[in-house]
Amino acid sequence: MTHRPRRSVLYMPGSKERALEKAQSLPADALILDLEDAVAPAEKDAARDLVCDRVKAKPFGPREVIIRVNGADTPWGAADLEAATAAQPDAILLPKVNSAEDLAAARKIAGDIPLWAMMETPLGMLNAAEIGAAPGLTCMVMGTNDLVKELHAAHTPERLPLVTGLGLCLLAARAHGLAIIDGVYNAFKDEDGLRAACEQGRDMGFDGKTLIHPAQLAITNAVFAPSEEALEEARAQIAAFEEVERTGGGVAVVNGRIVENLHVENARRLLAEAEAIATLEAAAA
Ligand SMILES: CC(C)(COP(=O)(O)OP(=O)(O)OC[C@H]1O[C@@H](n2cnc3c(N)ncnc32)[C@H](O)[C@@H]1OP(=O)(O)O)[C@@H](O)C(=O)NCCC(=O)NCCSC(=O)C[C@H](O)C(=O)O
Ligand SMILES: [Mg+2]
Questions:
Q1: pLDDT of residue 2
Q2: Radius of gyration (Cα) for the chain, nearest Å?
């Protein structure tokens, strides 16, 4: 698969065998098997063994599988990184990345396994551009719970306290051709709130959203997939532009709006995204 959909990226506590089992049939585009915040200190060693054994056994089908390790400055970080590297997941997610040096240090152990970075500290926001340029980094994940805590801010519906950080990371990710996933929505029984948060994240440019509960999957998958209406317009834009090009022109009009080559590029991206989603869903069925 050349393009991987990452509409829904579900965290699951690495210590919970039942959740790991259930994940094998959930319609998540990607799974983060968590050894960090979702696991109590007394369970860290057992969770590491459980998660790494499961990843080696590869029961998750076409879903992308990522292991989130503990930080290098914790008692578990070094052992997590060694074990995760041996398990060969699709990627290793590093928490609380502050600088490109954090990634370089992990890269020495992780070899060529792609690295993902949790963007969740004030220093990480200020260094987003250099972090985005780090070799081997393929995806940024917003850690909005930690960021709110570190900023002494509040979780508000419009997320105004976070807009600067979200924007800096989006700029860094797109400048370096990385994927970028939005933070979690904590109130996992609040469907309207989740939908609004997904729509905001999608409109800002995120590829998808990280989730904490399976009940959040359906809404997130729907909001981050291109709508039928958008796909229809994309096909019409491509057709109209190709027709105009044949007659030597450079601007078409569809539904009263201009279509230039940049709009056609975006239309092709939407169609490719829809195709990748269909391929993933067929493979998971
Ligand atoms: C929030 C939860 C503690 C709720 O758990 P629970 O009470 O067990 O929920 P349910 O009874 O409604 O569960 C129903 C079934 O679904 C399975 N389940 C629940 N959660 C998950 C999951 N995340 N992945 C897979 N499966 C899940 C249950 O096993 C039930 O199955 P069944 O037995 O068949 O009925 C719980 O959802 C939870 O622990 N969620 C994850 C929390 C987490 O990962 N937190 C850390 C990541 S968030 C973060 O740190 C982001 C970042 O770093 C930041 O700073 O922002
Ligand atoms: Mg965090």
A1: 59
A2: 20
